Amino acid sequence: MIINCKYAMKNFKYVLVFCSIIILGACSSDEGVNEAQESSLVIGTYDLTEVYLSAAQDPNEDGVSSVNMLDELSCLTGLLTVSADGTWDMDLIELNITSITGYLYDIRCGRAINHTGKWTILSNVLNLNNSEFPTMILNSSTLNESINDDLQGILNRKFLKQ
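The structure assignment produced for this chain is given below.
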């Protein structure tokens, strides 16, 4: 079978142009869709479920130490609301940590505080645009806030969506 080279080249050009259009169309930016999807996923109310320290402590003196202070202090609570209008509100009980000796600390619930502000999210990183709170990572229905303070301090907090 003999193929006409001029005819084959002409058809090859059309196929090449068609494939280029398909590839370029597939690479178009859909950032707006992803941002909207991320925003809709983060909107909601979250309960504080974990406040981790770097070393297990027993502030309630029940003989069982834990790195999660919510297991130790029933007074420790937090509620974060991320609203669709781009604002957020957090009610949180502060954690007061005072060094006694070595790795022994006096840990107590402090005062109730309220913070508010505007939020943004990009690539599952929630930014509360507040110097007192680092960014939080959205993982399914959990927001993880890594603080990484050495004791005396908090390593991280986790909030679970209601």
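Interim note for the steering committee: The radius of gyration is 26 Å. The longest helix spans residues 5-26.
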